[in-house]
Amino acid sequence: MHSDIRVCESWSDRHDRPVYTLTTRCPECGGNAVNSAPAPYDPTDRYGEYRRALKQRAQE
C-alpha cells in the first residue's frame, strides 16, 4: 500500500507542525516531501525480534 499524502522531510527542523501535501515539494519551505504512510506490518518478519531488542536497548 502506498499513500499519495506526503509530509515535509525536514518538518521537525523547519516547521512547528507537520506540513502535508500531495506534491513532491513542501509548499511552505520548498523541501522534499516523503511518503507519510508507515511501513506495512509483516507477521512473518524473521528479524522483528532482533530489531525490537535493539530498539529496547537504545531506549535504556
UniProtKB/TrEMBL annotation:
Molecular function terms, GO-annotated: snoRNA binding
Q: Name one GO cellular component term.
A: ribonucleoprotein complex
Q: Which UniProt keywords apply?
A: Ribonucleoprotein, Ribosome biogenesis, rRNA processing
Checking InterPro entries in the record gives:
H/ACA_rnp_Nop10, H/ACA_rnp_Nop10_sf, Nop10_arc-typ
GO annotation terms (biological process) = pseudouridine synthesis; rRNA processing
Q: Pfam families this protein is in?
A: Nop10p (PF04135)
What's the domain of life for this entry?
Answer: Archaea
Task: Quote the NCBIfam families the UniProt record gives.
Answer: PRK13130.1
HAMAP family for this protein: Nop10
The UniProt family comment states:
Belongs to the NOP10 family.
- What does the function comment of this entry state? Involved in ribosome biogenesis; more specifically in 18S rRNA pseudouridylation and in cleavage of pre-rRNA.
Q: What is this protein called?
A: Ribosome biogenesis protein Nop10
In its UniProt entry, the species of origin is given as: Halocatena pleomorpha
